[in-house]
Amino acid sequence: MDQPVYSAAAPRILIVDSSRNNLAVLARRLGAEGYRVMVAETATTALGELQRVPVDLLIADLALPLMSGTELTRVVRRELAWRDLPVILISGRSEADGVVRALAAGADDVVVKPFHFEVLTARIARLLERSTRVRQLAADNATLDERVVRRAIELGEARDRLKALEAELGRVG
Question: What percentage of residues in the chain have a pLDDT greater than 90?
Answer without folding.
Answer: 57
